[in-house]
Amino acid sequence: MSVSIDLLLAISMTLGIYLLAEQLYRRAGRSALVHPVIVSIFSIMGLITLLGWDYPQYQRDTQMIHFLLGPATVALAVPLHDNMALIRKMAMPLLVACFTGALVAAGSAVILSDLITSDDVLSLSMSGKSITTPIAIGMVENLGGSGSLAAGLVLLTGAIGTLMIPTLMRLCKLDDHALYGYVLGLTAHGFGTAQAFEKSATCGAFAGLSMSLTGVVTAFLVPPLVPYWMIGF
To answer: Please, which pLDDT band fits residue 80 given cuts at 50, 70 and 90?
Structure first.
């Protein structure tokens, strides 16, 4: 089977830009302001525009990279299995924190957005800001919001979360790796999970757990509640 030059170029460009962004991230002391995902997104956007590429075609050419997201997500089960005893011990507090965090994150964003802007599309799109992009886009579009706007808000939330959470944890004098990771995954989804694995496997395992649970809880509980959050604002 022949492989087109455009396909090879798209994949090589995407991987190359990410590797360069990763080096920049390390040299900048792992600051969330230059997170490799953020740098890569804007760099690729600029190159696509400069080269005059059609985005749907670029997306098709890089489908293999999208496919690898599945195995990468499943791989999070390995550190979870290694920390299963601790997870069972903390099961009830973790579930309470997840339900509370997911509902407060979505509810406060929707209510404040509707109160300040009265823009229904923006308010609905805000409901998915604290969960992973694939879940956020699907949920927001079903609610009548903008999937593209939701994806941008998810990106912004992740960047802010990874920037602020370490400082807040230091101020609260909390350094427990399980707690630290759970907070990162709950508030900053994939960005937070990636940062948590830099701290330790336990930290990353709890971040992955909270990221997954928050996505499920939000997808099931938030859509029925959104109309009530927007009433009267």
So the answer is: confident
pLDDT digits (tens, 9 = 90+) for 199-215: 888 888 899 899 988 98
Measured torsion, CA atoms of residues 207, 80, 24, 47, in degrees rounded to the nearest 10: -90
Q: Write out the chain in H/E/C secondary structure.
A: CCCCHHHHHHHHHHHHHHHHHHHHHHHCCCCHHHCHHHHHHHHHHHHHHHHCCCHHHHHHHCHHHHHHHHHHHHCCHHHHHHCHHHHHHCHHHHHHHHHHHHHHHHHHHHHHHHHHHCCHHHHHHHCCCCCCHHHHHHHHHHHCCCHHHHHHHHHHHHHHHHHHHHHHHHHCCCCCHHHHHHHHHHHHHHHHHHHHHHHCHHHHHHHHHHHHHHHHHHHHHHHHHHHHHHCCC
Tokens at residue 110, please? 């929707």
Q: What's residue 4's pLDDT?
A: 55
- Say which residue the tokens 């509902």 belong to: 103
Residue burial 86-100, b: 16+ Cβ < 10 Å; e: rest: ebeebeeebeebbee
- Per-residue pLDDT at 139 exceeds 90: yes
Mean pLDDT of 24-34: 82
* Residue labelled with tokens 């709950």: 186
The pLDDT of residue 34: 83
Are the C-beta atoms of residues 210 and 92 closer than 8 Å to each other? Answer: no
Q: Could you report the per-residue pLDDT of 141-168, keeping only the tens digit for each?
A: 999 999 889 988 998 888 888 888 888 8
